């Protein structure tokens, strides 16, 4: 069996086209242009690449991106002051602070300072709590992308066994909450999990969000399972060339999975599309408008 390849790039393009259409309608009918502030502190190369991609996508969707680049030496107080000014700015509907932050800044403090209505990452404790309570909330982008990708394979995932490897606040925990909200039976695995391969072999849906190149082997995968690979790892391959790989050994996994997301071209593009969707939803909520169902 060779797996169906879930084309995240194509799905993200469809989603972005629908969002751009909704943004045009918002501008035409209500003279509203969604605005998002993208904040990067320091010059981490990977973060710089992600932030550039996010700002470009925001512009292409017809939204306004306000880029704020701060030096690595920025103090926590300076960043908190910037957040306060963005919270108060009515032309800013979404605020994204790229993580990780430099050591001198407490990321949790910064996230908690963002107006929850502008928290397009869905990381604020109020949005985390709302998601866990089954209330409407802004939902973290990568987890939303993962579930949307899984839902292209399964009209319903109710009753399925889902295993999430990784318990980060950005991916592992929220993706588990979303799968639970879809009535899957969810297990979160992590570095202390005993016999991870055996646990994975029980999964109808396997989400790998560990950050370790090709850690999940083909023989860990239940035949026919849906595999969502969140990893983006830069490696030097056997021929000495740099290459991006996921957390799943793709060449092995594709032989036995039922469906799998490639890296690149799977979850990554969906993360950006879901950020745009959150920005659209946040803007509509702030303006008292009903967000379109996308
Ligand atoms: N760093 C890695 N992923 C993310 C994300 O989804 N949002 C932010 N703000 N930072 C990240």
Could you please describe the fold and organization of this structure?
It is a single chain. This protein is α/β, with parallel strands linked by helices and 294 residues long. The chain folds into two domains: 85 residues, Leucine Dehydrogenase, chain A, domain 1 (Rossmann fold), CATH 3.40.50.10860; 129 residues, Rossmann fold (3-Layer(aba) Sandwich), CATH 3.40.50.720. 40% of the residues lie in helices and 16% in strands. The strands form three sheets. It has a six-stranded parallel sheet with strand order 1-11-8-7-5-6. A three-stranded parallel sheet has the order 3-2-4, sandwiched between helices. Helix 1 packs parallel to helix 10. The longest helix is centred in the N-terminal third of the chain and has 23 residues. Bound molecules: guanine. The site of guanine has 8 residues, from strand 4 and helix 6.
